[in-house]
Amino acid sequence: MSEQIQNRSNKQISIIIVTKNDYENLLTTYDSFQFSDQIKNEIQLILINGGSDDETQSFIKSHSSDFSKIISEPDLGIYDAINKGIKYANGGWAIFMNAGDTFAYDKVLENIQGSIDREADILYGDCILKYPGFNLLKKACEIENLWKGMITTHQSFIIKTELLKKNPFDLVYKLGADFDQVLKLYKQKKQFKYIPITIAAIDTSGVSNRKITRTRCEHHKSLRKNEQLGFSMHFYYVLNFVYLVAINITRLLLPKKIYYSIIKAINKKRISS
């Protein structure tokens, strides 16, 4: 393979979209893909549908030509679905989207391509968290703070496809397999590179956000399994768990409108258009 062809292949990006009985959110994700002619040939779209019985089937029939691969069958959850998509990914890099998630702005992929570094194995950037009536900018943390939890959302990671094929999601984790995968890559001393780009806009009504305490427990379990958890880290997780339980109780007791108003007020400096 010539160096020119190899460079082009290395910049191609596979976008793996997973959905199940979530037609409206799938449509939101699909409609957000306004790719320029410059980037269209550098993108591979893969759709993994977990055996939906809603209007998703009609969507697939009318948009089948837009995807290089569509898998429509029952699965064992989000991470099993993504693993299926990884098998068919042929771009040099891959990124994941759940139904309802979008890119932060139209030129994201062009900017990512301009940031691709031969020495990097994993690129990651910032994200936007979508709440009812407002959005918050979430800046990515430094990779050294990975032990505290995901440094950004998994939709804001761009990972070399060959690494994903060798390191699939561990289905033991139902909500924290993305953290476990990133932790394993970090432990393997793969090269992480932060890029100052707001990559994804995330729907905060997703499963991992609704079950944040269970997600954090799975992060703790992964750290223990990978022998990355010291006493101070364990203590941090105990305090964090208590904090999250308090937040969940508050969310259950307060009307949603008041709860989200409090979040907006607390994070007013991070509000994004």
Q: How would you describe the overall organization of this protein?
A:
- The structure is a single chain.
- The chain is of the alpha/beta class and 273 residues long.
- It has one domain: Spore Coat Polysaccharide Biosynthesis Protein SpsA, Chain A (Alpha-Beta Complex).
- It is built from twelve helices and ten strands.
- It has helices spanning 3-11, 23-31, 37-40, 56-63, 78-88, 108-115, 161-166, 177-187, 207-210, 212-225, 231-253, 256-266; strands at residues 13-19, 43-49, 69-72, 93-98, 102-103, 122-131, 134-138, 157-160, 192-203, 271-272.
- Strands 1, 2, 3, 4, 5, 6, 7, 8, 9 and 10 form a ten-stranded mixed sheet that branches.
- Helix 4 (56-63) links the parallel strand 2 (43-49) and strand 3 (69-72).
- Helix 8 (177-187) runs parallel beside helix 10 and helix 10 (212-225) runs antiparallel to helix 11 (231-253).
- The radius of gyration is 19 Å and the shape is globular.
